[in-house]
Every structure is written in structure tokens, then in C-alpha cells.
Amino acid sequence: MAKIMAVTGNEGVANALRQINPDVCAAYPITPQTELMQRFSSFVSNGKVKTELILVESEHSAMSACVGASAGGGRVATATSSQGLALMWEILFIASGLRLPIVMPVVNRALSAPLNIHCDHSDAMGARDAGWIQLWSENAQEAYDNTVQAFRIAEHMDIRLPAMICYDGFIIGHSIGVINYLEDEDVKNFVGEFRQLNPLLNTEHPISYGPLILPDYYMEFRKAQDEVMSKVSKVVMEVAADFEKISGRKYGLFETYRLDDAEIGIVILNSAAGTSKDVVDEFRNRGIKAGLLKPRLFRPFPYKEVGEALKHLKAVCVLDRADAFGGSFGPMFLDIATSLYPYKEKPLLINKIYGLGGRDYMPEHAELTLNELTDIVKTGKIKTFKEYIGVRG
Amino acid sequence: MATKLGLKELSKKEVLISSGHRMCAGCGAPIVVKMVLLASDYPVIASNATGCLEVSTCISDYTAWKIPWIHNAFENAAATISGVETMYRSLKKQGKIDKEIKFVAFGGDGGTYDIGIQSLSGAMERGHDMLYICYDNGAYMNTGIQRSSATPFGADTTTRPAGSVIPGKTEQRKNLTKIMAAHNIPYTAQASPSHWMDLMKKVQKAFEIKGPKFINILTPCNRGWRSKTDDAIMLSRLAVETCYWPLYEVENGATKITFKPKKKKAVIDFLKPQGRFKHLFQPENEWAINKLQEGIDKEWERLQKEESISIS
Question: Which residues of chain B does A67 touch, with a Cβ-Cβ cutoff of 8 Å?
Fold first, then answer.
């Protein structure tokens, strides 16, 4: 395989799964995840992987079969989008509660109603508190790299938690971008052999998975889950350091762009971060100290590190590609506000909701936002805390 | 060689569901599980739908299961075991496991007829090498005797109680065994713990057949049936002898009735000892008993016809 290829994000992630070569994959078709699983299925049909595919009758059964397969004692993957993730929701908590390292690319798409197949982040945001690790990806390269790293993080013996890799449907999933592939052998060595932990398939040592736990111990289980979540950041950084050795590409808990000396800044996830960086450059060219922070590890959210990275700014806008209805602000805004709460000196914060159901996020949206932040710094006053942008009256 | 299904031989085998679990006294479900597991000559791995059996056999750090066991959720025992079975095939193909293992799912009628039917249908269609056992006690007993699609016509349940206007359940039960046979899987059967040899023969046979198998087992619940705690086996026998619950199997499309009562008893013999049908014996509800009897007669006739077609 040529190392540098022009491929869709879905093809890139399908190739990551081919290189990782899971033991079992259970999946159900949903736009815009379809291309990813179609490509992976052709790897299965053509003997490029050893994976046993379970072509289930719903996403609920996809996640249920993944739970069974993972408890069985092997490497397991699936992928979904939107309604599919919503249908899995019940079992997401069971996968994390049973501490099963299932890896799942989520090709972000809006939720119905109204029905819409295009990109926003409502699907993964709705599952952000399900006890899964979430890695978000700006482009095809990051989606590929995060998929490779996700297996190492999820299967780490200190962690053993399921992980989602989020990337934007159509914008990244179906659009052609550049991917610098790793060699098959390097990926194989990087992820390593799957290490079993209490495999159900060991009939010599029968164990019971999924007991009923009443008030006597339930809370201790939840506390243990909270504790393991607190260990994830460290593992993510260790895995990123190893990944840099084989790829030359550097990853952290989040990416900062011209943020160190910035006075105003944007916090934004996934593909829209790319557009925003261009606009940040334009503002810098005009002598305005603009910067950007793009979360990568969204769950567990690295509150402390994000707070440290943003606290010196004068004004920050969090751009959410999903709303948390009734929560007053977008889901990411709430996390950023929480990150900054401990600091006495902190930036003024505003929230904008953009790009729902595939509505284009244009450079002028970033421009409008940075102009507003400039005004806020000048006047010290916020006119609108939360606003929908790129929307009719 | 397969274990001979004699009491002497079976008494020497280890019982794989331990005593001390928290099922109600007189419940039919652990008897069914015990028989199913005793009938296997191979190591077995089980999945279990949420329900009485699940909540009462694995609480906190206690488990009654001496085999690997997994409970995932209510509606997905079939999909869950299909995942375990697929991982087994994957690891076996890779030479990482060499043992012959059998896979079984246990679900009640709520978790099978109703909320779990999609998961079950999907797993059967995909051809997994697994046996699904439905322990059918005819209502959502775990949550407090609510009506299910397996609840018999006329029965009193907490969500369709027999009242002054509505005399209990107004619909006929779903014929799940027939639905499963229509999947054209290699083996479908109906069994009852009263006929233990018949039940275990069917399970033993199912474990020898590659592919998806389904056995529906009538499982008395004295709490829901409002019957005496020591009547489980007697009631399941009456269910068979009245042809309310015919014992039969469908193997590769051929129907075979495995027990034919010498003289078919009237359904009232099955209804009488159960409090859930008490109201049907009021004069104004006589029609309901007649309707139940008609339904049973029709079904029994159909089954015999199917058998005769299979033979010819």
C-alpha cells in the first residue's frame, strides 16, 4: 500500500480496522457509517482479515453481540451513527459497566426528528455520560490515528473501558482527504496481542457476568468506574507518546492553536476546527491575538488541563455542534465553564450553536465570533450568552 | 457417547445450577435449567435475559451458576450469546481454543415472545450454533404478573385484571414455537418439565445439531398462576394432557408429536387448580372457557395434520 493516499475518512478508518484485525465485529448499516462497514466487509469477504462479522438485525443487537463477544475474550469493534447510537444507548452503559474494551467509530450525524442524515454532534453528545472514552477527530488522518490508538487505550490493563472515535459524517466520512497510512506491521505491533481478562470462554474457570447488585454494593461499582475514568488521561498521553514514535504525529488531550499568547479564543470540535484555524490566522495577520482549542479526549473531559490552557484568555466562545435542550447551553460549553470555574481570573464566556443537521460552518461564522469576542474584550460586556448562528431569523 | 438419560446415570452428573439461589419455592424455572444443563454432554456457556431466573441466581457476589454465564439486558439474550458464540468461532479458527463448547440462552416469555423477539429472530436467521430456551410462565412474573403475549386467553394478570367489564386477557396467546419453526431452523421443539425424559432428549438432540435451535418450555409459576407451591409438575402435566401445551418437535421442517395423551383431558382440568382462571368459572364467563377449549382443539388438530403431512 502506498503510504500517502487520498481517501474518504470512512475508507481510512476501515483500513485502520483492517490493520488492527479484530476477532469479532458486529454491525448494522446506517448512513453515514455505511461506507466504513461496507469496506470492512469486503476485507472480510476477501480474506484480508481474520475477523468474524456478525451482520445483526439492529444496532441494539450490534452492541449486545459486541458485549457477548468482548466478554468472550477477544478484540471487538463496531461502528455506527445517529439513530443507531441512540438505539444502542441502553447497552452502552452495560458495555462500560462490565468494563469491556469495545472500540466504536461514531460517524457523527444529527438525530431525528426531523429526520436528517447530515453532520452534527447530537448523537455522540447524547452518549457522553455513558462511561465510554470519547476521542474526537478533525480530519481523516486524525480519525485513522485515533482508531489505532483507541484500541491501546481501551484495552490497557489499568483501563478496560469501551471507546468511541468521533468524526464528522459526510464532511470527513465521505469527503476525500489525505491519509498518511502506517505500515500494517507497525499497526499490528502497536496494538499488540489482545490480552484477555476474565474470559467467558474459559469453561475451566466459570465466571458470571452482569450480576444484580442492590444498594449494598451498587455505589461502590459506580465509584470504581469514576476512579478508572480518572486514570484515562495518563494512558491517553502514554499511548500518544508511543504513537508518535511510529508515526511522527503528535497527539495530546486536546490541540491548542496559537493559544499561548492569545486574548480571545474559540473552543470547537472536529472538522469545523480546521476552518476556524484559517480564520484565526487571518486575525493574527491583522494583529489580533486570536487562538483556538480543539478537544480530542472529550470523555473523560480533562477539566484541569483545559482550564489551565484557557484561563489566561480574556474572552472565549465555545462553539457547539449540538444543543443540550433545557440545559441552557450547548454540551461542550458546560464542560468549558466547569473547567474555568476554579480560577479567580478567567475569560468571559459565550456559547454559539452552529452546523446542526449538516448546516455549513463557514469562515464568516468564525469571523463573526472572533469579532464579537474582540468587542467583548473592548467593552467588558456580553450582549448574548448563547446564540444560534448560520440560522434563519 | 451421549449420556444415557436414565435416573441412575443422571444422578451421577454434577448439577450445574446450585441450590441456595433465590427463586421462589415451587418455581418451575430452576427445574428446567437443571434439566437442560444435565442433558448436555459438553461444557455449556449461557446467556440469560433479565427476569426472575437472572435476578434470583446471581446477586452481588453470589452466583448459582457453575458454568460461564452472562446477563446483558432484557431483550438481548439471543444477540448476546450470538456474540459469545462468534468469538468462540473466531478464536477456534485461529487455533486459540480447541474445546467443543455449546451455547445456550435462557429467557422468560416476556424476554422472548415480546421484547426479545427481534434479537431472537435475528440470531436464528444468522445461523449461530446456539440453543435458545424460553421458559414460558405466561406473564411478566418478575415485575409482578403483568400480561405478556404468552399469557393465555382469559387469564387474570395485574395489567389485565379480571374485572366487572373485562374478564382478564381478551386475546389469544402468540404461537411462538410455530413462529420459530417458520424460521426454517434445523430444530424447534416444545417441552414440559413434567415429561422430563422427553425434555432432556430434546435438549440432548438439539446440542448435537449444528446451527440455531429453539425449545419452548412451559414453566409453572405458582405466584402468577395462583396455584399451590407443590403443584408445578402436576400443572405442567395437565397442560400436556389437555393439549394446552402439546409436546412436539419440528426437525428440518418435519413435525413430530412426541407425546399423545391416550385420552385428551378437558382444559378445565388445567384451569381449575389455578387462581388466575378462577373468574372464568362464573356462569357469565362460560363462553370464555369454551373459546379456550375451541382454540386448543383447533391447534391440536392442526398439529396432528402437520405431523401426518410430515410422515407421508
Answer: 70, 72, 80, 83
pLDDT digits (tens, 9 = 90+) for A40-59: 999 999 999 999 999 999 99
The SS3 call for residue B283 is helix
B92 torsion bin: left (phi>0), alpha (psi -120 to 50), beta (else): alpha
ipTM above 0.95 for this complex: yes
Alpha carbons B69 and B106: distance in angstroms, whole number: 10
The helix, strand and coil proportions of chain A, stated in percent and rounded to the nearest 5, come to 40, 20, 40
Q: Which of B43, B60, B79 sits opposite A203 (nearest CB)?
A: B43
Peptide bond into A211 cis (omega under 30): no
Type of residue at B89 = R
Distance from CA of B119 to the nearest CA of A (A): 6
Contact B227, B273 (CB under 8 A): yes
The neighbouring-strand residues paired with B191 are B217
Determine whether the interchain pair B72/A67 forms a contact, defined as Cβ–Cβ distance below 8 Å. yes
CA distance A304 to chain B (A): 35
Strand partners, B215: B133, B189
- Whether residue A214 and residue B89 make contact (CB cut-off 8 A), yes or no, is no
Phi, psi of B105 (to 5 degrees): -120, 135
Is the pTM here over 0.95, yes or no? yes
A382 sits in the region (left: phi over 0; alpha: psi -120 to 50; else beta) called: beta
Q: How far apart are CA B245 and CA B308, in angstroms?
A: 19
Amino acid at B57: T
C-alpha cell at A117: 442524515
Q: CA–CA separation, A284 vs A274, rounded Å?
A: 16
